[in-house]
Every structure is written in structure tokens, then in C-alpha cells.
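DOMAIN: structural biology
WANTED: fold as C-alpha cells
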Amino acid sequence: MARYTGPSCKLCRREGEKLFLKGARCLSPKCAIERRDYPPGMHGREARFRRRRESDYSRQLREKQKARRIYGVLERQFRRYFELAQRRPGLTGINLLSILESRLDNVVYRLGYADSRAQARQLVSHGHFDLNGRRTDVPSALVKPGDTVSVRKESRRKPYFKAIGQQLDERRVPRWLSLDPAGLTAQVLQLPIREDIDVSLSEQLVVEYYSR
């Protein structure tokens, strides 16, 4: 299972904004953007003072890279999601975001079981969740309306889930999901629409990148 294993904070610095890849750290003074608000590398500090006209291709590439990094998806899989979004009826960009939001690791993150998508991916990979009553350790599994996501009975006895169960708040869960904090169970009510997705992305630029 391929995944990015490098420094997460460098990704935020490269995009020039917080991507919230490390949970609570991104809200603290330790955040890399707060301490070094310039691109990584030996010439990063100088790049902050350059005034260069950004090309259309550059803006499209940066937006695509930002989307990949936010959701923790590598290029080959991201392109497959784009091709799947093209085959669905409706706007390709919104379809793409809906698919990314429907990943199991993102659902676990949205439900509040993890502080970041990377942490949610780890929880799923370690087999702590059931999807429709069956154990799954595939973070990229796509959920659909009517699916049930629950913490496995064996995992509920672990200190982590005992503590997190007391912190869950169904009011903070997106409206396309329904959470039962007491039972550590959630249901997918519908596929997310653009208004439900709070990521700072211009999906149209991603569509333009792949439509060149």
C-alpha cells in the first residue's frame, strides 16, 4: 500500500497555506507555516520576495497537488478518481471532491475518531473499523449511501476508543453522515455535495489540469 512518508509540514510550506495534515499541531505555535512561511529548500526564503507571474499551468498544477496532499492520495490513484468522476453525471470537479470525501479514512476523520486524515488512515489500516458489519483495513474503500461504519467490538475496549467515545459530538459531524456516539456507530445518509465540503480548493483548476 503506497503512501507518502516524508515530512508533512513541508507539504504545507510548499503550498503556502495550512493543509491541516497534523491535527492539533496545525493549530499551535509549532505549526511550520507560523514559524517558516516560505517554501522549503535552500532558496525557499528568497522565493518569498520574488514577483513572478504565475502561469495557468502552474496554478492548475498547484491546485491538483494541494488536493492530493489534503486527502493523502498519490498520483496514480488520484487520476483514477478523476476518471471515475468524469463517468458520473454532473460536474466533474464536484464529483471528484465527493469521491475523495467518500474514502473510508476521510469518513473516519469527519466523524471525529482522528485528528487528521493520516491518523484516520492508520486506524483503518490497523483494522479497528467495520464497514457494513465486516472488518475492513482498506483506507481507500469508498462508502455509499446506506453504509454503516462502526468501531469493532474488540477495539472498543482499547483505551483510545474509550477516551475518544467521550469526546465525540454528533453536532459537528457533516450533515451527510449520522453518528451515534454512544454506540460508536455511524451511517452514510447521502453522498456529500459541494456545500458539505469545507476544504479550500478550486476543483475547476484540477479539471483544467487533467483536460489539457
Observations:
- The chain has eleven helices and five strands.
- Residues 43 and 113 are 39 Å apart (CA to CA).
